[in-house]
Each structure stands twice: as structure tokens, then as C-alpha cells.
Amino acid sequence: MRQKQAFIPTMREIPADAEAISHQLLVKGGYIRQLTAGVYSFLPLGRRVLRSIEAIVREEIDRTGAQEVLLPALQPADLWQQSGRYEVYGPELVRLQDRSGREFALGPTHEEVITQLVAGEISTYRKLPVTLYQVQTKFRDERRPRFGLLRCREFVMKDAYSFDTDWEGLDMTYHAMYDAYHRIFERCGLQFRAVEADAGSIGGEGGTHEFMAIAESGEDDVVTCSCCTYAANMEKAISLETVKLSSGDGDVSAIVREKALLEQFHTPGLRTIEELTNGLGISSAELIKTLLYLADGKPVAVLVRGDHSINETKVLNALGAITLELADSETVKRVTGAGTGFAGPVGLTVPLLVDYEVSIMPTAIAGANMTDYHSRNVVPGRDFALAQVGDFRNVQEGDTCPSCTEGKLTIIRGIEIGHVFKLGTKYSEKLGAQFINSAGESLPMIMGCYGIGVSRLLSAIIEQNHDDAGMIWPASIAPYTVHLIPVAHQDAAQMEAAERLYAELTAAGIQVLLDDREERLGVKLKDSDLIGIPLRVVIGKGIAEGMVEWKKRSSSEPAERIAISEVLASVNAHIAGS
């Protein structure tokens, strides 16, 4: 491609609404443009990267034996109602009606559609297993789209669905996909971890793993061990301390309880944990934090130690609820009789979810359910019931690893780029995907689901591969491999050499962007650094001696002089090495 005719509208200023570095650079570099909040157009450079990623995804998924289909984005609402997910997805599901008043949804995922399709076409074990996948545009009505392609309302996704006759078959398919995901992300040049995860609204009966690109800008907390390979999303992570308590090693009856009587004391204006620890001169571990939630609209109280934070996913799963949100001030006042910040477990009539660590506290300070008052000498099991005790907290830095029992847990940030699920029979039973086995019995198919955020990968890769000047694309997915830049457009010798090299590289199958614009060299080099093509060849006055300047975008070393006759071999060596 000749840059003079290429549609690459670079910008000099950072867009005001772009928070993530990948968002800033993709817009500045002319890769994407926003149409409306969370909806983006892919310009030629962005589309070329997207196609390269899609090609890698297709190659590796095809290697597993999966077959590509293309399913409708427009889905009948009754399919979602049949699966039970129409309400679960809530306002994130984009809903609409046709002219006849029939309800539809724009698919954020395709479990219902693919299950109905397979149910209508396969009825015998002889046609199983089968895995089908697609690369498709998805829709999710995000409450707050942000970070460019990382949190969109319209996005490109690869989703695959497997159908097996038994759990052993699903295990084989799951591990084949798990391995394929490793190959895909390695080929995309990403640093990533596969971590244990919560199934969320996709659900299922088996294991699930998320694939996380490691990045400080990530929205997810990834918990890893300092000694072993244990890794989990914060929503799923547990500590050895919690494992011991849940197994009975921390028997509540063995805890030495405080004998002092419960008493209330005046704490004017002390609402937060920080205010209490500073005002009372105590540690946060001596406090019980009581938060009121609405679970499917009904109030519940969750208790964790003052130095811990509540894991809302664990709470939601323990309750088997569809929705969970913090109670508003009116609800808090109605349930506790006090203003926000003074809730406590003693005397509450709503269900109490008590974290293991709270259940073994000998005594504690907690809200008194009276504005400006707290209670001291609160004893779990004496002053409030321990009817529902469980793991309701987030792990912390320094907790002990539950896997190797020796390492300490550390927390890093990550960007979710893929997710694999063992669905079991969640969808096949509800949507009638049955098969007849060799004994003549009718059984539900055992399903798996496997997603990759294809468009999201652009941002994840840039979050890991950039510098102050711009993007640094890995060779495997770059929009072009070589950026060819003649210094002076009016210099006939330079332009002739550039044209010869352009033709030679192109004939060898190398993707080349030739900057034939009548611009100053500084402008050309600045644009080149911004758009991040892996290799740059500058043709200047040295061409009189048959020499050009060669530079790798990923290297901080200055450009080196090489013979123009060596460029093709050097490019091929770089491609092979990367």
C-alpha cells in the first residue's frame, strides 16, 4: 500500500475521553473511530489487524476439529426465556420488537441459538461429538462503555460450542480448546495466564477458566501464588485460611469467647472503617463490617472482618440470586433503624451471611443499628446467629496459597481475553438437545462453550506493546510488516530505490507500506512510530552507496546501516525469529 492514497487519519492530540493507552493510540494512529459510546468503526489499519487475529484464531480452532458456522445476531426472545437467561442478563441484553410486536434480542452470546440448531439436526450418538464455532459481532448494552475496545456495546467475538455424549468426551474437547487458546495468545505475542474463574451468567456445571492478559490497566484482579502455578480470578480465589475453616479445622466451638457483656457506646460521625480505627485507636481486624444488599430485591446482610472486602460474586452464588446490589440509604434506614455506616448484626431480622473469619472472632466492635452508636463486646454465635457461614471475602496479598499451602498469594491486574466453560446439560435439557445412545436411551448432550474477545485483543496487545511514541505491533498481527520511508520525495535516486525495494518485498509476499507522501522526514518518522509497524527502512542519501537505515520498532537501539540488497533476507529472518 502507498501511504499517499492510504486512509490513515492520524491525530496529534490525545482524545479527551480516552482513558486507556490502547484507546488513545488506536484513535491517534487512525485504527478506529467512535460512532457513539461503545461503538467503533474499524479503519483500514484496524481492520487489517483484526483480520490477522481472526486468521490465527481460525487456524488454531480448526486444528481442534471444530467447524465454522455463522449464526444470526438477531435472536427470538422466547429462546432466551426458554433457557431462563432473559431476566438473568438484565439491562445488558439489547431488546427490540419487530413490526408485529414479537420480541427479539441482539445476541451477546449464542448458547441458545446453537443448542436449538444442533437439537434439530442431531439425534444419535453416531453424529457426536461435534464442535461448531463462529466469528461474529456481538452486542451488550454496557451501562458505562469505556477504555475503547476493552468495554464496548458492539464487539467481535469468536465463540465455539461443543456437544459430547459424556463428561469424559467434554474433558477431551475442553482441554483441546484450552491448549488452542494458549497457542492463539502466544502467536499474538501476549503475556497471559489461564486462571480459575466464576461462570457468571453463562453458567454450567463444570470447570471454567479465564485467560487474562497481564496489564496494569486491566479491570480484573488476578490472584497468583509466589511458589506454584495457582492462579484465579478474584471472584473465584480462595486462601488456605478459608479452606481450613470451611473444612472444620477452625471449629467455632473451640474459639475462646469474650465473657464481657454487650454494650453500646457513642461514636458520633464515625461511619467508615478508617474513621473508626483512627477515632478508637484500634485495628480494622477488630471490627465487623456489616453491609446491606438487595438480593433479587430482598434485603440481606453480609458480614466480613473490618480489614477484608466483600466478594459479591461469592455472595450471589451462595444465595442463588440473579441480581445483587448495595441497598440504598432508605432501605438501610428501614432495615436497621439507623443511618448508613452504623449497621450491625445484633438484632437484625434479615438473613445474615457471615464470613468464616467473622465466625471465629472472640469478640468484636460492630454497628449498633443506632445512628452515631456502635456496640463493643459483640460475640459471634452469642449475640447473633451463625446460620449461614461461608467464604464471602476477597483474598488479600500475603494470604496463603490453597494449592501448594506454602506460597503467598499476590494480586496482579489483567484483561480478560478469553473464557472456556464446561456447561454440562444446562442448555441441552432446557432446549431439547437430546441424543439416543447405543442402548437406545434418550439423554441430554453434554456441552462446552469457548469464547475469545477478538476485537478486544487489539487493545490488550497494545496495552502490553507500546512506548511513549506509539504502538509496537508483534509481526504476526501487524497491519504491515515493513514501513518503507524515502527521505526526500523529490530525490529521484531515493524514490527509484524505494520503488525497486517495494516491488521486491511485495513480490516475496511481504506486506509493505510505502510512505510516498510529500512530507518532512520528521513527520514521516513520527507517524511511523505511532502506527507501530514492526520494521522500518529509511532510504536517504546513503542510497548512493547502496545503503539504507534499518530499525526494529521494538528496539530502543538506534537505526543501523545495511545494504539495500540485504533487506529482504533481514525481513525474512525477523519474521522467522518472531
From TrEMBL:
Record carries keyword Cytoplasm: yes
Gene Ontology terms: cellular component: cytosol
Taxonomy, superkingdom: Bacteria
Subcellular localization, as worded in the UniProt entry: Cytoplasm
Keyword 4Fe-4S: no
Segments forming domain Aminoacyl-transfer RNA synthetases class-II family profile: 38-474
Pfam families per record: HGTP_anticodon, tRNA-synt_2b, tRNA_edit
Membrane-spanning ranges: none
GO function terms (MF aspect): aminoacyl-tRNA deacylase activity; ATP binding; catalytic activity, acting on a protein; proline-tRNA ligase activity; transferase activity
InterPro entries in the cross-refs: aa-tRNA-synt_IIb, aa-tRNA-synth_II, aa-tRNA-synth_II/BPL/LPL, Anticodon-bd, Anticodon-bd_dom_sf, Pro-tRNA-ligase_IIa, Pro-tRNA-synth_IIa_bac-type, Pro-tRNA-Synthase_IIa_type1
Biological processes, Gene Ontology terms: prolyl-tRNA aminoacylation
UniProt entry keywords in alphabetical sequence: Aminoacyl-tRNA synthetase, ATP-binding, Cytoplasm, Ligase, Nucleotide-binding, Protein biosynthesis
EC number per UniProt: 6.1.1.15
Reactions performed catalytically: tRNA(Pro) + L-proline + ATP = L-prolyl-tRNA(Pro) + AMP + diphosphate
Entry's free-text remark on domains: Consists of three domains: the N-terminal catalytic domain, the editing domain and the C-terminal anticodon-binding domain.
Assembly information from the UniProt record: Homodimer.
Function: Catalyzes the attachment of proline to tRNA(Pro) in a two-step reaction: proline is first activated by ATP to form Pro-AMP and then transferred to the acceptor end of tRNA(Pro). As ProRS can inadvertently accommodate and process non-cognate amino acids such as alanine and cysteine, to avoid such errors it has two additional distinct editing activities against alanine. One activity is designated as 'pretransfer' editing and involves the tRNA(Pro)-independent hydrolysis of activated Ala-AMP.
Entry similarity comment: Belongs to the class-II aminoacyl-tRNA synthetase family. ProS type 1 subfamily.
Name of this protein: Proline--tRNA ligase
Organism the protein comes from: Paenibacillus albus
Gene name of the encoded protein: proS
